[in-house]
Design a protein that fits this description.
This protein has about 280 residues and is α+β, with helices and mostly antiparallel strands. It is built from 10 helices and 9 strands. α2 crosses α4, α2 packs across α5 and α3 crosses α4.
């Protein structure tokens, strides 16, 4: 696993666990990491956990004017007209296409304090929510200055990039992330119909180039969430086999190359995850 990641030019902290047993593998699993868009897992879990407790209605419609939307390359972030969507449909966009604008509407309705309370209740002591995605984008733009975001990828750049520093924003660990996923899949994070809805939403991600690339089988289901920001390439999710066994996976990586397009690095995450799951399956 380490050889695969190293040859692809990735530094990684990762953790893989059997959802229903004690078997686990990892390296640097307790190191704090800047989670980028993987943090949307914690956000949508808090939404549906609040729904299960009767404190929020995910079917409630929200008016979404164009002004004030957070920047991004997908979903509402690139739409040019006003819209009206429910909170659960916004959650679907936040997971399926990593829509930053949709996620920030959820932050506004669920609340940063509520997400932090949720992860504390679930025992995730090293996970902290500290900023909306619009604030994250603004910090990148401020750090880049006139050179633009591309300047931040230059290995020789002396600029401190706050978005890459776990202490500056949303953060977690690989072990906390797999713990969250295991609790979600066991129905411990959110029970009942809203727990089923949470599982449905987390199975909607469209990207297949990282975690899912390591499991190209029609009878193996992969649910996940990517995170991409400058040199960061993350993915976390659950791999479910037809024999009923299931595995929570979290890979937080940083590329050594400044290139934005690195398909070999992306696929290495899937390959390493497959090797880890195969080892747990014996």
């Amino acid at each position: 696993m380490e050889e695969v990641l190293t040859e692809a030019g990735l530094l990684a902290s990762w953790h893989v666990r059997d959802v229903d047993a004690e078997a686990e593998l990892g390296r640097g699993a307790d190191a704090p990491v800047a989670t980028a868009s993987v943090h949307k897992l914690f956000l949508v879990t808090a939404l549906f956990r609040e729904a299960a407790a009767g404190r929020i209605d995910p079917t409630a419609p929200v008016e979404l004017p164009v002004p004030g939307r957070s920047p991004g390359r997908t979903g509402l972030s690139v739409m040019r007209d006003a819209a009206r969507l429910s909170l659960r449909d916004l959650a679907s966009l936040a997971v399926a296409v990593s829509d930053n604008a949709a996620a920030d509407v959820l932050w506004d309705h669920v609340g940063m304090d509520t997400v932090n309370r949720t992860v504390a209740e679930l025992g995730l002591r090293r996970t902290v929510s500290a900023q909306r995605y619009g604030e994250l984008a603004a910090s990148v733009a401020e750090d880049a200055g006139e050179g633009g975001a591309a300047a931040l990828l230059d290995p020789a750049s002396p600029v401190r990039v706050r978005a890459l520093d776990p202490a500056s924003g949303n953060r977690s660990t690989a072990r906390d992330t797999t713990a969250l996923l295991a609790k979600v899949w066991r129905g411990e994070a959110c029970a009942g119909p809203w727990g089923e809805e949470l599982l449905r939403v987390l199975g909607l991600q469209t990207w297949q180039h990282r975690l899912a690339s390591g499991f190209p089988f029609d009878d193996v289901r992969v649910s996940g969430k990517t995170g991409s920001l400058l040199s960061l390439r993350h993915e976390a999710g659950v791999v479910e086999y037809p024999d009923g066994r299931r595995y929570a996976v979290a890979f937080y990586t940083r590329a050594l190359s400044p290139a934005l397009a690195q398909p070999r690095a992306d696929s290495a995450i899937g390959t390493a995850a497959r090797l880890a799951v195969d080892a747990l399956r014996g």
